[in-house]
Amino acid sequence: MNNIKNIGIGLLLMTGLFFSSCSEDFLDEEQTNAFSTAYFDTPEGLQALTVSLYGNIRWHFAFEWSYGTTLYGTDEFTNANDLTNEMWNKYDSRLNPAGSTVATGAANGNATSPADLWDQMYYGIASANTIIAKAPTVITDLKIRNRCLAHAYFLRGFNYYKLTAQYGSVALQTEPLEGVVVRNYDRATAEQCWEQVISDFRNAYSLFEGEVYTYGKGITWTKATAAHFLAKALLFRVSERNNAWNSSYKDADLKEAVDACTYAIGARGVLTPNYSDLYANWTGIDNANEQLSEILMSAGFNGDAATAGRFENRTFSFFTPQFSNFSGGWVTRGVWIGAMDFQRCRPTEYSYAVYDHVNDARMWKTFKTVYGVTSVRTPNPNGVKLGDPGIVMILNTKNDNTYNSYKFGASAQGPNWKDDAGRLPEWTIGNRQTPTAGSLTSKTGQFVPNSLVLYQNGTYVAPNFGTTTVCNFFAGINKTDCGSRTGERANSNRDGIMARLAETYLLRAECYVRQGDYGNAMKDINTVRERAQWKNGENRSYYSDGSQAFKTNPLNTGTLATNFINANLDMNTYYLSNPGVAVTTAASNLRLTTFPANLPAEDEAVLTKVGAGSDYERALHFILNERSRELLGEFQRWETLSRTGTLIKRAKAFNTEAAPMITANKHELRPIPQTFIDVLTNADGTNLTPAQKAAWQNPGY
Question: What mean pLDDT is reported for the chain?
Answer without folding.
Answer: 90
